[in-house]
Amino acid sequence: SQELEQSPQSLIVQEGKNLTINCTSSKTLYGLYWYKQKYGEGLIFLMMLQKGGEEKSHEKITAKLDEKKQQSSLHITASQPSHAGIYLCGADYNNAGNMLTFGGGTRLMVKP
Amino acid sequence: DGGITQSPKYLFRKEGQNVTLSCEQNLNHDAMYWYRQDPGQGLRLIYYSQIVNDFQKGDIAEGYSVSREKKESFPLTVTSAQKNPTAFYLCASSIDSPTRTMNTEAFFGQGTRLTVV
After folding, report:
1. Interchain CB contact of A50 with B (< 8 Å)
2. Using CB atoms within 10 A as the burial measure, which of A73, A108, B33, B84 is most buried?
3. Mean pLDDT by 10-residue block, N- to C-terminus, for chain A (112 residues)?
4. Which residues on chain A are in Cβ contact (under 8 Å) with B43?
5. So what's the pLDDT on residue A30?
6. Whether residue B97 has pLDDT greater than 90
7. Cβ pair B108, B89 in contact under 8 A
8. What does the alpha-carbon distance between residue B47 and residue B54 come to, in Å, rounded to a whole number?
């Protein structure tokens, strides 16, 4: 979707390194969801960030929503091979629950 | 265990055939969704259903049809009118129907990879 841009499209990092994935919206966000997908499998919910801007953390993953920039970042600290996969951000533009518009995804590879 | 199940995992279709993808959930969720995933394009919404016997078109409904006869089931039929059906299809469900103001996450199935041969 052109409304929601993710960057980078792909990322290769050495195990133990930190990394950041960005998700930028061209429209006002009511909510922003982060999902992780193993190739060819379903999506696993990571975090949801509310309109107004907030920051959440779970284990080594931190996500922030900057309301002013309409941008969210997902930061992984001390990456591990288990973090590898495709990370997708999904935008709620209508405050309508879960009819999300998704970004194109970021493919993350972690080299041991 | 509660969850959402898609079947089959892999599906091959000859040109001109209709095929149906199954999606079943035992989470007692009201809302169910079908998404299509193509490389580099993220997910796009095909159809969604807020309640039994009701469903709405999403962004790319042409060439697809759905039914919602039971709360637990939301099958997707890819018809011969769909010109480029080869893709990865994901079904999802959520606890609240889409018009609720409270946002909750959607639970996704493991997906069905459809290939036209």
Report:
1. yes
2. B33
3. 87 97 93 88 88 86 93 96 94 75 92 93
4. 88, 90, 100, 102
5. 86
6. no
7. no
8. 11
C-alpha dihedral, A67 to A63 to A5 to B109, nearest 10°: -120
Tokens of B81: 């009118």
Distance CA B24, CA B7 (A): 9
Q: How far apart are the CA of A101 and the nearest CA of chain B, in angstroms?
A: 7
B27 torsion bin: left (phi>0), alpha (psi -120 to 50), beta (else): alpha
CB of B55 closer than 8 Å to CB of B49: yes
Single-letter residue type at B111: G
Structure tokens of A81?
């091979």
Distance CA B9, CA B110 (A): 8
Contact B98 A43 (CB under 8 A): no
Kindly compute the dihedral angle of the four CA atoms of residues A103, A109, A110, B4, in this order, to the nearest 10 degrees: 60
- In the structure encoding, which two tokens stand for residue B41, read together? 């394009």
pLDDT reported for residue B16: 87
Produce one character per residue of A83-109: b if its CB has 16 or more CB atoms within 10 Å, e if not. bbbbbbbbbbbebbbbbbbbbbbbbbe
3-class secondary-structure state, position A84: coil
Q: Which residues make beta-bridge pairs with A107?
A: A10, A86
The DSSP code for B70 is B
